[in-house]
Amino acid sequence: MPKLYYTPHSCGAASFTAAFTAGLKWESEIVDLAAKKTASGADFYSINPKGNVPTLVLDSGYVINENVASLTYITNQVRKCGVENSCVLNIFSCRVPKNSNLLPIRR
Ligand SMILES: N[C@@H](CCC(=O)N[C@@H](CS)C(=O)NCC(=O)O)C(=O)O
């Protein structure tokens, strides 16, 4: 199962939110970016030598550590799940509650 390393208050949260919203079954773990430690105490540099989030570790061991790449990967997974007209933006835009302060994306 792919594992996403992220923090709730950084750009890494975008991949977490997209994967969660899309219903993907992934493991995830929060990272302390200052200490470069994962919540379970692992040396984050040993997982991602760049030490940044999002970091997505695939089952193959391949490490994706750029937002655009991880969001693209998520999009491709959603396509495989058969969600109609899927892309990450559509995932968000179609799930925004009617009374939310968030503005849906115009199409
Ligand atoms: N080029 C990367 C940059 C990602 C990035 O800067 N992540 C920040 C959080 S928003 C981070 O992990 N900073 C800690 C660090 O780089 O040491 C991307 O676009 O994904």
General description of the model:
By secondary structure, the protein is of the alpha+beta class. It has a single domain, classed as 3-Layer(aba) Sandwich (Glutaredoxin), CATH 3.40.30. It contains four helices and five strands. It has helices at 12-22, 44-47, 67-81, 88-95, and strands at residues 3-6, 27-32, 37-38, 55-57, 63-64. It has a five-stranded mixed beta sheet. A hairpin with a 4-residue loop joins strand 2 and strand 3. The longest helix has 15 residues, at 67-81. It is globular, with a radius of gyration of 15 Å. The model is unreliable at 102-107 (pLDDT under 50). Glutathione is lined by residues 10-12, 33, 51-53, 66-67. Residues 10-12, 33, 51-53, 66-67 line the site of glutathione.
Would you identify the regions where 5 or more consecutive residues have pLDDT less than 50? 102-107
Secondary structure tally: strands: 5
The CATH topology annotation reads as Glutaredoxin
Q: How many angstroms separate the termini?
A: 34 Å
Mean pLDDT: 81
The whole-angstrom Rg is 15 Å
